[in-house]
Specification:
552 residues; mainly alpha; two-stranded antiparallel sheet; two-stranded antiparallel ribbon; 4 strands; 63% helix
Length: 552
């Protein structure tokens, strides 16, 4: 137990400490304090006039539509293009659609194994490029939201913010992480698969490629899509205990830093501290639950003469330790990362519930940029409810929050639940889902529920007992990913645009404070009511029912 606690403290504590200076740098970057850098970026991008929320949203959506179209075309014709030493063939159009939607939306849901499906050009020129610009899109949107909340007249320019996030933040960090991973043993080559003869005299083909570069931005941008099918359980993506720990820090550091960036841009660091504390509390609660639930041995060994004293080892990489599997599972789903270092389908039922909770809340640091935007929606709802409770016009940092803003916030929050539960209900009730299950009963339902939770939250991880590379799954999850990505970005931009248009009030002694413990408690209650309780019936039919059944 001491080792488990020490591992958790080192990973989460290191990321939290490093997020403070990184958040300071990000705030300076998006506040335009690096004049020379901005001038260089403006020369590349051309004229970058200030945009209101509508212009910013249109620019964001247009650029992302072009991203999707470019990568869709690239994946479709990969077999006719260079950098294909292993001779990968054309993929089906439904899989191409799903993959392009997945990486454009920062989800990285993978209904394929990368080493046997895509060429090096498709992986690097298409998917890895999207891992940069999709992550940069989320950070840019957060910068725009923060400027509006902070009282600035303009929300900035999307194309300038996109370049700042890509070239001045993600690219330098990715170079550092890629170098560390390469030194730890992660391959970085453009050569094709290696061919070897085993000790038994049998030929073996060993896939490899430019893995270090791909994995670096996969983690930093909360993308999660692996170069190999087994993702970070593969020794070529995650060879040692130290690369494992370093990768987990890379997963969470930028989402944590986004909170501090938000606080500095709006000029309210105490408010950011309350939000950070609420997020951290939820994160530690889920980590504690996952590690504790996974301490029980797998039910498959209950009636066998097998002694297990260190918990459930099914689906774990023993070289990485028993604790890091559930720890990674919580970190990757508290953010929108989605990479895996253990098979989530093999987790004990209540352990598997913890990643689902992370995706349902979708605001425990969350994806880069968008996690803080999702929390902003909960903040708006909490402020509105608190104002109604005391009989005052709800205000957030001097901005009057009225019915229009509340409707947009509730629409954004509940659209996530509708996409998750609606898709789950449809596929659980039809052959589209039932025919693809490897498990029946509560666990089979959990596999369907997890897949749509992952798609709607733009996470990308999965319960891998599901045969999801079918036309219905590829089209349905592709549409869910697209709606689940852009609706919760555009609606908060609209909320901020509405707030900017109103006269900002001076705060008084009667104004609701958002910088103390009382507001933190109110925020927690709001998240539990509007986030967690919405999904409780589905949880009861899935992982909770499975746990109760196994305990009989």
């Amino acid at each position: 137990m001491f080792t488990a606690i020490l591992t958790i403290v080192l990973i989460v504590g290191s990321a939290a400490l490093l997020s403070w200076p990184l958040g300071h740098y990000m705030a300076a970057l998006f506040s335009g304090r690096f004049t020379r850098t901005d001038n260089l970026l403006i020369r590349v991008a051309g004229r970058t006039p200030d945009q209101d929320w509508k212009q910013y949203s249109v620019a964001l959506l247009t650029f992302n539509a072009l991203m999707f179209a470019f990568v869709f075309l690239l994946l479709t014709v990969q077999h006719r293009l260079p950098l294909n030493p292993d001779g990968q063939n054309a993929a089906s159009l439904d899989l191409v659609f799903n993959t392009a939607a997945s990486f454009t939306t920062n989800t990285n849901l993978q209904h394929y194994s990368g080493e046997s499906t895509w060429s090096y050009l498709a992986q690097l020129g298409g998917l890895m490029w999207l891992q940069f610009v999709s992550a940069a899109t989320g950070i840019a949107a957060l910068a725009a939201v923060a400027r509006g909340i902070g009282g600035q007249a303009s929300m900035g320019n999307f194309f300038l913010d996109l370049q700042r996030a890509t070239f001045c933040l993600l690219l330098p960090l990715a170079i550092i992480v890629a170098l560390v991973l390469a030194m730890s043993g992660v391959p970085m080559t453009f050569e094709g698969a290696a061919h070897a003869i085993t000790l038994e005299g049998v030929g073996q083909t060993i896939a490899r490629g430019s893995v270090a570069a791909f994995v670096a931005i996969k983690q930093l941008g909360t993308n999660g899509g692996g170069f190999f099918g087994p993702n970070s359980t593969h020794p070529f993506e995650n060879p040692t205990f130290w690369s494992n720990g370093f990768s987990m820090i890379a997963i969470i550091i930028v989402p944590m830093a986004c909170v501090w960036m938000f606080g500095r841009i709006i000029g309210r660091m105490k408010h950011a501290g309350v939000i950070f504390a609420v997020m951290l509390a939820f994160l530690l609660l889920k980590i504690g639950g996952a590690v504790a639930f996974e301490a029980a041995p797998t039910h498959a060994f209950v009636h066998l003469p097998v002694m297990q004293t260190i918990g459930n080892l099914e689906g774990k990489e023993l070289r990485l330790g028993a604790t890091t599997g559930p720890l990674w599972a919580v970190l990757t789903t508290s953010t929108s990362n989605g990479s895996v270092a253990a098979m989530h389908d093999s987790l004990n039922p209540l352990t598997g519930l913890m990643p689902m909770v992370g995706m349902w809340l979708n605001a425990t640091f969350g994806g880069v940029g968008v996690g803080m935007i999702n929390m902003f929606l909960y903040v708006v709802v909490a402020v509105f409810i608190a104002g109604m409770m005391v009989g005052r016009t709800p205000e957030y940092l001097g901005h009057k929050v009225e019915g229009g803003e509340m409707r947009l916030a509730v629409l954004a929050v509940f659209s996530h639940a509708l996409l998750t539960l609606g898709g789950t209900a449809l596929f659980a009730a039809t052959a589209w889902g039932q025919a693809t299950l490897n498990n029946v009963g509560a666990h089979g339902f959990s596999e369907i529920l997890y897949e749509f939770s992952s798609a709607a939250a733009n996470n990308g991880s999965g319960f891998e007992g599901l045969g999801d590379n079918t036309v219905p799954w590829n089209i349905a999850t592709g549409l869910v990913m697209l709606i689940g990505r852009y609706l919760p970005i555009v609606l908060p931009l609209a909320i901020v645009g509405s707030l900017i248009a109103k006269t900002r009030s001076a705060e008084s002694a009667g104004t609701l404070s958002v910088e103390g413990g009382s507001f933190g408690i109110m925020l927690v209650i709001t998240i539990l009511i509007f986030g967690a309780l919405t999904f409780f019936p589905a949880a009861a039919l899935g992982p909770i029912a499975e746990h109760v059944t196994l305990m009989r």
